[in-house]
Amino acid sequence: MQNLDSDSEDELPPGWVEKSTDDGNVYFVNSCTNKIQWTHPRTGRKKVIPEDLPFGWTKTVDETGKTLYIQQETGNKTYVDPRLAFATEEKKHVNDFRQRFDSSTTAFQVLHGIDLSGKFALITGCNAGIGYETAKSLARHGCNILMANRNMEATKKAMSDIVKETNASEDNLKSIHLDLASLESVKKCAMTVKTIFSDYLDILILNAAVFGLPYTETVDKLETTFQVNYLAHLYFTLLLEPLLKKGTRVIFVSSESHRFASLKNVFNQQNVAMTRDSYSSMMAYNNSKLYMVMVAKILSEEWRDKQICVNSLHPGNMVYSNLSKSWWLFRLLFFIVRPFTKSMQQAAATTVYTAVASELENVTGLYFNNCFYCAPSELSRDEDLAWEVFTLSLKIIEERMGSDGIQKYLDKCITRLNGEKQ
């Protein structure tokens, strides 16, 4: 993880002021010499600002025709463009951006000044915990949220709570039933989503997960943690591909626990899920999170030309959430360490950052932690192994659901395999 850069180099020398153009460019004026230039007088770098005004601001003109900015909530007026507070250095490369936040950052801080009106996000597993905090944070800033959950009663309450806590419009919150333990439910949900969002999705956050379960199987005869945490999300994402357009951000919520995954013996009988004989609830969770990182990277490459951005992330170290409710030992552990854990707002920050940060435009194929990218595990970066996991996963889906929505990827896997044999 890189250290945060100092802002001192961004400070303007005496006599210089920063101004903006309507189309989002920044220029610098020396008030003593009237010299005007496009580059920062100290760093020599060009800066840009968002095209849209920050959330809650409007632009008008005063009686002299001079541009005036008004903060709607407070009524404050200023001649200084509020977008300048969000100025960033123009990128020389798509991944050329500095770290703005750290582990103490909250989702509220990440979203400061951002207007998400007109944006559409689908989030899985968001009636409680980090998913709920993510949905609430985005809704607070005007985003339209489709909450995809299994427990619709809990979802209804979550929607009501979000409206009460944020004053978000009820019209901006919708729910849909999604049981990740059933591939048929996943397919049905994806079909319904396409009728709700007839055009496109701006944000897809694959957040739902289970943890600490004893060995159980879903209705599809697959180990539950493997299917709920990973396979169903992969299937769901591929089925929703027609809604993913240029600029869409797809986020696979993984975990730092992916670093402790072990794929020893998991490829037995062409099945990447753990078998009953070798099952460990912790390892099943670790492996499912490893697979999330792997397929996020694969899909980022597959969709790069379409400018669909796919990234994975770890939401936060030692987060106290309802995820630990499945295993009594972890319930005890989290109770003991709760004073030292991240808050839900802090835990949701990285997900929110990856979903909305302007500097991440066109950024794809990265793994994020504490609101910045870092290297995932060495195992997750094994391209051949990742494709083997991807191929076997698609075959498992095909055996149960047919090839609709995944055929082109099955064909590519076969082509890749044949190429390796030659």
Automatic annotation (TrEMBL):
Q: Which domain of life is it from?
A: Eukaryota
Keyword annotations for this protein, in alphabetical order, are: Apoptosis, Golgi apparatus, Lysosome, Oxidoreductase, Wnt signaling pathway
Any one GO CC term of the record: lysosome
Listed GO biological process terms: apoptotic process; Wnt signaling pathway
Q: What is its main location?
A: Golgi
Gene3D superfamilies of this UniProt entry? 2.20.70.10, NAD(P)-binding Rossmann-like Domain (3.40.50.720)
Q: Does the keyword Oxidoreductase apply?
A: yes
- The transmembrane segments are none
The Swiss-Prot or TrEMBL record annotates one GO molecular function as: oxidoreductase activity
Please provide an example of a Pfam family that matches this protein in its UniProt record: WW
- What range(s) does the WW domain occupy? 10-43, 51-84
Q: Where in the cell is it found?
A: Golgi apparatus; Lysosome
PANTHER family assigned: PHOSPHATIDYLINOSITOL-GLYCAN BIOSYNTHESIS CLASS F PROTEIN, PHOSPHATIDYLINOSITOL-GLYCAN BIOSYNTHESIS CLASS F PROTEIN-RELATED
- The protein in question is named WW domain-containing oxidoreductase
Please tell me the species this chain comes from: Papilio machaon (Old World swallowtail butterfly)
